[in-house]
Amino acid sequence: MWQVARRKGKQPRLPLAWELLTGLLTPFFLLLDPRGLLQERRMPQFQEQAESRWSWVVLLATLVTQGLTLGFPTCIGIFFADLQHDFQASNSETSWFPSIMISVLHAGGPICSILVEYFGCRVTVMLGGVLASLGMVASSFSYSLSQLYITAGFITGLGMSFSFQGGITALGHYFSYHRTQANALASAGVSIGTTLWPLLSRYLLEVFGWRGTFLIFGGVFLHCCICGAVMRPVSLKTESIYPPPNKVPAQGCLLTCAQALRRRLAFDVFLQNQGYRFYTLGIVWMLMGFTVPHIFLVPFALSHNVEEDKAAWLISIIGFSNIFLRPMTGVVAGWSIFAGHRVYFFILAILLNGLSNLICVISADFSVLVFYCLVYSISMSGIGALMFQVLMDIVPMDRFSSALGLFTILESIPVLISPPLAGLLLDTTGKYSYLFYMSSFFLISAALFLGLSFFTLKKKEKMMDRAKEIIALENDLSLRSIEDPVPQPPQAVTYVTYVTSV
């Protein structure tokens, strides 16, 4: 039946439940065969179509993956005081743990790009789940902060990077027409994770301590393997996920590595695409302040005599609000009338995020902090729903994977520096208000930079389009004058002279 259907050029369809079961089991059978991964890449196989019903299964898997990966760092503040007490460390030393984790989560983009190209999104996401699980299990046996940096910081962060970025890439290939709405719905997983991770962390910390909690988290991260299993290869009309290797003469190892690095990190896109260059630099500057409230909000509330349960609820309020706000933002941004203006919505979200941090400087009362979390949620929903969609609007999809790799590895620099710098500022001054001033400065200045850059770029593009229209009009008039040698009337001469003066 399969041979007959394929000879007729039709794609055989199975019930969705059976497709889901085969999608879950196929990677495990491939892993049993040491040559299975290469066979999955080289052998012809059944591929899904973009915008099909299976795309919504991949969307659900990406949503869960983002909740498990991007939502997890928001709960680190719950363990901040316990880690400081057990390891007798300062704020700056303890803050290196979440900064390394988040930095590696972003910096793993180039490695993830290579894995996606050679083994596909499915295997990459599953490998990320295994690494994240191993890192958390090993961290539960750590007896120094340096061991925690390696296990929960580096290994878990690298695993989360593979799962998150592999899922984002798969989602971009599965959706084309509804890509904006799909990205917004998938980013709601971050909100769900931000809501549930702090509550689960607070409960497990009281019952098992931070070591037992990290051990349980190792089992939770294995769910990324299930999510990756459903991300089957998708057939593309204009591009291929697995391009055939180029037959070129053997080159030196250094030259080969340099060429591979250049291709994976999309330096050519960064140099030639002004929009991508402005966007990347603006986001790098923005992240110097964006990650500070996520890590220090709970310690800030605890330092002002807010109960531990209420302090944990602050992060959950932000996450719960984003569950509804992110999809709404994505739906509105997906309207055709806003197609060319999504970047300005994103800039307004950054500006509001920076201004909202000043609320914590006014008062540390619990009711004021709840109001801050609600305002912060509105701005965070715009940033989370539009960040990668704006990147997809700026960069062609055939270069998105490599552009995302360079984008995320540059993001890792401020993410690595910002929390320890904020911790050092706290150790020096002893006041949390300076942290929120620091966060507001970077966010507001980044919004102004992006706004001016894209306004100038759009104005320049309009002028270039107008110049092209004038040149095309002049060429058309020249062709008409050659074809018809009849003397031109006076008004035609006046019209050409006017266009030239413009």
UniProtKB/TrEMBL annotation:
<dbReference type="GO" id="GO:0005886">
    <property type="term" value="C:plasma membrane"/>
</dbReference>
<feature type="transmembrane region" description="Helical">
    <location>
        <begin position="123"/>
        <end position="143"/>
    </location>
</feature>
<dbReference type="InterPro" id="IPR050327">
    <property type="entry name" value="Proton-linked_MCT"/>
</dbReference>
<feature type="transmembrane region" description="Helical">
    <location>
        <begin position="212"/>
        <end position="231"/>
    </location>
</feature>
<feature type="transmembrane region" description="Helical">
    <location>
        <begin position="343"/>
        <end position="363"/>
    </location>
</feature>
<feature type="transmembrane region" description="Helical">
    <location>
        <begin position="96"/>
        <end position="116"/>
    </location>
</feature>
<feature type="domain" description="Major facilitator superfamily (MFS) profile">
    <location>
        <begin position="55"/>
        <end position="463"/>
    </location>
</feature>
<dbReference type="InterPro" id="IPR011701">
    <property type="entry name" value="MFS"/>
</dbReference>
<keyword id="KW-0472">Membrane</keyword>
<dbReference type="InterPro" id="IPR020846">
    <property type="entry name" value="MFS_dom"/>
</dbReference>
<feature type="transmembrane region" description="Helical">
    <location>
        <begin position="403"/>
        <end position="422"/>
    </location>
</feature>
<keyword id="KW-1133">Transmembrane helix</keyword>
<feature type="transmembrane region" description="Helical">
    <location>
        <begin position="54"/>
        <end position="81"/>
    </location>
</feature>
<protein>
    <submittedName>
        <fullName>Solute carrier family 16 member 5</fullName>
    </submittedName>
</protein>
<feature type="transmembrane region" description="Helical">
    <location>
        <begin position="149"/>
        <end position="175"/>
    </location>
</feature>
<feature type="transmembrane region" description="Helical">
    <location>
        <begin position="278"/>
        <end position="301"/>
    </location>
</feature>
<feature type="transmembrane region" description="Helical">
    <location>
        <begin position="434"/>
        <end position="457"/>
    </location>
</feature>
<feature type="transmembrane region" description="Helical">
    <location>
        <begin position="369"/>
        <end position="391"/>
    </location>
</feature>
<feature type="transmembrane region" description="Helical">
    <location>
        <begin position="313"/>
        <end position="336"/>
    </location>
</feature>
<dbReference type="InterPro" id="IPR036259">
    <property type="entry name" value="MFS_trans_sf"/>
</dbReference>
<feature type="transmembrane region" description="Helical">
    <location>
        <begin position="182"/>
        <end position="200"/>
    </location>
</feature>
<dbReference type="GO" id="GO:0016323">
    <property type="term" value="C:basolateral plasma membrane"/>
</dbReference>
<dbReference type="GO" id="GO:0008028">
    <property type="term" value="F:monocarboxylic acid transmembrane transporter activity"/>
</dbReference>
<dbReference type="Pfam" id="PF07690">
    <property type="entry name" value="MFS_1"/>
</dbReference>
<keyword id="KW-0812">Transmembrane</keyword>
